[in-house]
Each structure stands twice: as C-alpha cells, then as structure tokens.
Design a protein that fits this description.
Layout (H helix, E strand, L loop, with lengths): L1 H25 L23 E5 L23 E7 L5 E6 L6 E7 L7 E2 L4 E2 L20 E5 L4 E5 L10 E3 L3 E2 L9 E7 L7 E6 L1 E7 L12 E5 L1
Antiparallel strand pairs: 1-3, 2-13, 3-12, 4-11, 4-14, 5-6, 7-10, 7-13, 8-12, 9-11
C-alpha cells in the first residue's frame, strides 16, 4: 500500500507543478501546504499508598512529637494526657491508587518490651492494670497508655468535597497490653471498600492518656512510636 501511494502521489505532484508554474506566471504567488496526522499517547500509573506527618502547608514534619500534660511527683498513680494529630502535625494519608482499602495503625517503635525512659528511670506503656501498677509482663515496671482514635477528626485534603470522608472509619479506644489479650498495635483509621480512591486525608485530635505508676521519679521521659499504613 505504501509503495502504491507514493507512486500516485509522485504522479500528482508532477501535474500540480505544471499548474503552479502556470499560476505563478499569471498571478505571481502560490502556496501549497501538506499536513501529516500524528497520534499522541500518555500513560499515568498508580502511585503508592503512604502515611506521613505534615504541617498546615502539607510539608513533612522532620521530627514529629506529642507533648503530654505535666505531672508532679506523687506516691499515687496519676494520668497525663496528650493529643496525636494537631493542625501543625497532622496525620496525612495518601491514596494515589485505584485500591480503596487501607489501614493506619500505631505501635511502639521498640516493640512490646519498650518503656518510657529519661535515661536513668523507666516506666511501662502496656500493662493491663488500670492503676499504674505492674502486671505479669516481662518487666517490673507499671504504666498504661490508652489511644482513643474515636475522638479524632477526619478531613479530606484539600477539602471534603474533593476527597469525601465516606467509609473512613475511626478506630476504637484501646490500651496497649503486653499480656492478657496482648495489644501491640492500635488501629487509628481505616479506608473501606467504598472509600474514595486517588485522594488524600488528614487525621487530627486522637486522644492519648498515660497512667503513671505511683512514686515514679521526676524526669523528662520519652518513648518512640511508629504509624504504619497497610
């Protein structure tokens, strides 16, 4: 087909040239334009689901942290509170895929044997006792951390119109436990099968409460946690 077309086109060009010469001679101006059709293509692939801690402008927070309320030394157990997810350190879920389902959860970075520490003293985060005393776990430290995702707020980014919060389910309040029906990870938020795809959401306002054991020495204690998406 191509060879035949070229031959016919060559013959036509010979005739046209004759006409053009005649036209130029009488008019003095002639222009011929040839167009060639081209088909463009573009492929856009899915990204990867992920979770991050970002500020109000959407920039990753380099060293995210949660500060609990202060406490004074006491011979009795006491409870301090904090908030995971604020306007300046919001938990952001990215789903640039066609898969609607995902779950974000929080767990101690060091595992079930990790403890709060000020470098000299420690206390626990996953005892089953509600009064801050030690239970039958692997250490001799008391203390219990409760996470309450149900108090949190879900928001689409940039807004709930672009990214609705349909079928985004907040996790239930739960305490970490090393023994007695162990809880090593607590679900914060779940995207169900009807959740919007190719969207981004923020989670803020997750309540935290830590029971301190009686007579815990004063100090600046820290404990690392990791939020994962699966």
């Amino acid at each position: 087909m191509t060879a035949v077309f070229q031959a016919i086109r060559s013959s036509m060009l010979t005739i046209i040239v004759g006409i053009v010469l005649a036209a130029v001679a009488s008019v003095g101006l002639y222009q011929t334009v040839f167009g060639v059709a081209s088909s463009f293509s573009q492929t856009i692939s899915d990204g990867s689901q992920s979770v991050d801690i970002v500020d109000a402008g959407g920039t990753t927070v380099g060293s995210p942290s949660v500060t609990f309320s202060s406490a004074t030394f006491s011979t009795s157990s006491q409870t301090v509170t904090g908030t995971l997810g604020t306007s300046s350190q919001r938990i952001r879920v990215y789903n640039p895929t066609s898969d609607a389902t995902w779950t974000i959860a929080i767990a101690a970075t060091g595992g079930s044997t990790a403890t709060w520490s000020d470098g000299s003293h420690t206390y626990d985060f996953n005892d089953s006792n509600t009064d801050g005393t030690d239970d039958a776990d692997s250490d001799s430290k008391g203390g219990r951390l409760t996470v309450n995702p149900a108090s949190g707020t879900r928001a689409g980014s940039p807004d709930n119109t672009a990214c609705p919060i349909t079928d985004l389910t907040l996790g239930s309040s739960s305490s970490f436990r090393e023994v007695a029906a162990a809880v090593s990870s607590i679900t914060l938020l779940t995207g169900g099968s009807s959740a919007t795809t190719y969207c981004t959401w923020d989670l803020t306002g997750v309540g935290l409460s830590q029971v301190l054991p009686p007579s815990q020495p004063s100090g600046a204690y820290t404990l690392s946690f990791t939020i994962t998406l699966s």
